[in-house]
Amino acid sequence: RKFLRVLPLPSDNWSDLVEEWCCHPNPFARSTLHPRHDDCFLGDTFFLLNSGNESHKSKETTRVICKRCKTMLGETVSSDTIKYYATEVIIQPAEGSFSPIPRSQFVQSMVAQCLVELSSAKSTFRFTVKGDNGKTYILIWLLNSDTLLVESLGSSSSLSVLTPFGDTFMPSSGPVGTWNAVKVLYQPCIKCRNKDLADAWENDLGVHPLKFPSETCLELLLMLGLSTASLPPSLRCMNSFQVRNRCY
């Protein structure tokens, strides 16, 4: 059985890195800190693993593709380091049963948790969602992180919105379903929409960029749009931004 040392990636606060440096030599060397064997470095939207001596991996390869479904899972950072995006890989527990999580539920949950954690750690509430191609797909403004959605099991309207890919959110128990959620304002940026606002956010130090595979950015945008469409017309917009509740 293998165990990974899970370490957060370097932040802007150097005092936070003392504990992580203890297992790596020459911490003050002017070089990028990469995971060694059995290390796992956690980033905002990804984690880094040491690729070992995988002879089938070409050093020129930049995208890591699933051989079965051809989905992009991550990308190579160096000859011995792979970046896996958190929205593309589910970690199965070493022991106990494992129930597959519906794709739409998993993506929403991962992104929502990321927004909550970053807003708490860095006091930032505005985010740009970028693809691996460098393009900006969505501008997100976190409004509330403690929203609770409650729904009677007799209603199917919101469930249809939460299941754009045929997945189903299961209620906790009893005759009423409840979900923890975050409320966000967002603007789509595909096809040059909101370009001026996107450019302004790009140069704003108070905006935090989030990077995902481009296909996932489009999935996320579809989920946002379907959720907004389920709201009453009077509640769909706020200050030119569209409103969305996202479960996690």
TrEMBL record:
Cellular-component GO terms for this entry: cytosol; nucleus; ubiquitin ligase complex
GO biological process, one term: protein monoubiquitination
Residues passing through the membrane, by range: none
Principal EC category: transferase
EC number(s) stated in the UniProt entry for this protein: 2.3.2.26
Annotated GO MF terms: cyclin binding; ligase activity; ubiquitin conjugating enzyme binding; ubiquitin protein ligase activity
UniProt cross-references to Pfam families, sorted A to Z: HECT_2
Catalysed reactions, as listed in the record: S-ubiquitinyl-[E2 ubiquitin-conjugating enzyme]-L-cysteine + [acceptor protein]-L-lysine = [E2 ubiquitin-conjugating enzyme]-L-cysteine + N(6)-ubiquitinyl-[acceptor protein]-L-lysine
InterPro entries in UniProt: UBQ-conj_enz_E2-bd_prot
Keywords: Ligase
Function field: E3 ubiquitin-protein ligase which accepts ubiquitin from specific E2 ubiquitin-conjugating enzymes, and transfers it to substrates, generally promoting their degradation by the proteasome. Independently of its E3 ubiquitin-protein ligase activity, acts as an inhibitor of CPSF3 endonuclease activity by blocking CPSF3 active site.
Subunit structure: Interacts with UBE2C/UbcH10 (E2 ubiquitin-conjugating enzyme). In vitro, interacts with cyclin-B.
Name recorded for this polypeptide: E3 ubiquitin-protein ligase E3D
Species name: Tyrannus savana
The gene coding this protein: Ube3d
